[in-house]
Specification:
CATH architecture of the largest domain in chain A: 3-Layer(aba) Sandwich
Largest interface: A-B, 64 and 63 residues
Oligomer: homodimer
Helix content of chain A: 25-40%
Distance between the termini of chain A: 76 Å
Shape of chain A: elongated
Number of domains of chain A: 3
CATH superfamily of the largest domain in chain A: Response regulator
Strand content of chain A: 15-25%
Strand order of the largest sheet of chain A: 2-1-3-4-5-11
CATH topology of the largest domain in chain A: Rossmann fold
DNA sequence: TTGAAAGCGATACCAC
DNA sequence: GTGGTATCGCTTTCAA
């Protein structure tokens, strides 16, 4: 079993022509090939362990059944990773394979990554980012059907559909959860506004207060960073040496790592979570949120769903216009943006407002 | 710019034959094609924006320049991810592209993932796992040059080279770091032994004590789990309500999440890290270890290096035996195991042993 | 030095 | 029903 068997080998063994083999193995045997030949062909294929050479099929059909994925930081993060996992599952279920090129956040590599993928004759392209962010679609990307996941191009002319999380709504529902627990003095910890996730979540937070007819206290929105230490120091500022009446009763964090920092600070100050102060995370980070002590109440980012939705849309577009290599259709494509809702996950880090603070 | 230009288009524009185009663009023009034709060809290629169709090249050359990567949980974790990132960088630098198939820890999907990759005519295969673990190499994998990263096949006959971290040494150096700081009563927290990382790191830990002529106190090695809550509860068992003289002065954790749990527990008990108790992590997990409060001293897993080393070896093997599809060579391949050393990263969570406890 | 022609492996059309 | 044949885009002898 040195060389893989080819269709010709199968044809010889079955005593038919290559064409017959092709027809039968592609399910179009009935009405074209005699029943009995069909059986012989299938048997021959089985004994030779024949599977078609995907490269040859691609060349012949002018479609590779490969989807190229460009990611700015793919595999290093659980974020991108999950988006890609969701996308890949959908692709695989339809006989596609994905090849991902990681630009390692170097935007100058965008175009070359796309070019490499295009040389490989990918049928479609997907651009994925770690954090929600605006970007300029690499020009080449318009040559084949494409989709953006967790990012968007705000230039109207770049008509590439995008799938992004509904951050505003996420921020609103997080605040609402706490409001319903009776909290009135809620702080919000986020990172800088380079990532639009911060302002959007903050927007949702304010929306919730407004809808409830409640004010957001001044100085309660802190943009401190995205990591554990930022959460720690932010919480210290909010809680350390502050009179009970002046302390927020709940702190919403724009990600789970910030929440870890907040709990670390609370522990150090002898404050119990959630009895003295409720803490919320965001992202539902794998192996972090669920196993924290206490387990974090958080807003789960719909990463897999986003990846799946983006890929589903892309493949649908592909099958709509078979054989078209994108040149003409690119302009016609509508520049829609799909907002995928986040999911509130209630665990143990949030609880009713402490007595006398509502 | 609808259809991509082909070599024929270039040939026409330059007024030469396809062969000439091929020769020149592949760098074998000198001595075969007139200087002046060469210039015309390059110009034509540039104006037409020509790049060769990788699919056609693959078919013709019977090598795809694609490396297939099978991962058991690729993208969801920062672990696999970094290995793949390291491997991919090496591959890309040599004009290869990687396509990764995630089995999502479902071992029954191993063979089919490999089969899919083989149908795509990958030139080589790499198997990557999230945690160090033994496995049975999928049979099909032996058909092309292959390598294992972060996993190994302990059946002697399966001659697939493996690249794995030197866990024993890692455990030893972690303990040595603490021993040098004067600690004598050091606890070790790990997960279960399903992953060989636990017993190996523990082995290293014991080795260090033995080398120092010191005993490991009974009950100081706890296999509690791999997550934050496990670390928290393990630490509580070790520290809560225990007389100072009976408390370990340092706790080594088999990963950084366990260390988070330990610090959380220490904070809650009013114990300062590292003044009252030193805490070490393992892995140097991205965005976690460096930003913890206090920043974690940890053993960095050489993930990128492992990926790079594995890919480098694989590509070397490929170029050694061009045109050979692995059938014959598989048996000849030596079953080596490359141990990559971990790297001690000293931060703020470890310090000198408290006075009177050394 | 250059170009014609033979595949790589598979598909699909078109006579027979 | 069946098998011959052109074709996908490229590389590589082999003649001229």
């Amino acid at each position: 079993m040195n060389r893989k068997a080819t269709a010709l080998d199968v044809a010889k063994l079955a005593g038919v022509s290559r064409s017959a083999v092709s027809l039968v193995l592609n399910g179009r045997g009935d009405g074209n090939v005699a029943k009995e030949s069909q059986v012989r062909i299938r048997e021959a294929a089985a004994t030779l362990n024949y599977t078609p050479n995907a490269i040859a099929v691609s060349l012949r059909n002018r479609r590779s059944r490969i989807i190229g994925i460009v990611s700015d930081q793919v595999v290093t993060s659980p974020f991108d990773g999950n988006i890609i996992a969701g996308a890949d599952a959908v692709a695989r279920s339809q006989g596609f394979v994905t090849v991902v090129m990681d630009t390692e956040s170097d935007e100058t590599r965008d175009e070359s990554a796309v070019a490499t993928l295009l040389d490989r004759q990918v049928d479609g392209l997907m651009y994925v980012t770690v954090g929600l962010r605006p970007l300029h679609v690499p020009l080449n990307m318009l040559r084949v059907p494409s989709v953006l996941a967790n990012c968007f191009d705000d230039r109207p002319e770049a008509g590439v559909p995008a799938v992004i999380p509904d951050e505003v709504r996420g921020g609103r529902e997080a605040a609402t959860h706490l409001l319903e627990l009776g909290h009135r003095d809620i702080a919000f910890l986020a990172g800088d506004s380079v990532y639009p996730a911060a302002p959007r979540r903050i927007q949702g937070h304010r929306d919730a207060f407004e809808a409830a007819g409640l004010p957001v206290r001044a100085g309660r929105i802190l943009q401190v960073g995205w990591d554990i230490d930022a959460g720690f120091h932010g919480a210290m500022k909010l809680l350390d040496g502050v009179a009970v009446a002046e302390r927020p009763t709940a702190i919403v964090c724009a990600n789970d790592r910030l929440a870890i920092g907040v709990v670390l600070a609370a522990n150090r100050l002898g404050l119990a979570v959630p009895q003295d102060v409720s803490v919320m995370g965001y992202d539902d980070e794998f192996r972090i949120a669920a196993t924290m002590v206490p387990a974090l109440t958080t807003m789960a980012l719909p990463l897999r769903e986003m990846g799946a939705a983006a890929m589903t849309g892309l493949l649908a577009e592909l099958s709509e216009e078979p054989g078209n290599d994108g040149g003409a259709s690119a302009g016609a494509r509508r520049a829609d943006q799909t907002l995928v809702p986040c999911r509130l996950v209630v665990r143990e880090s949030t609880g009713p407002v402490p007595a006398g603070r509502n």
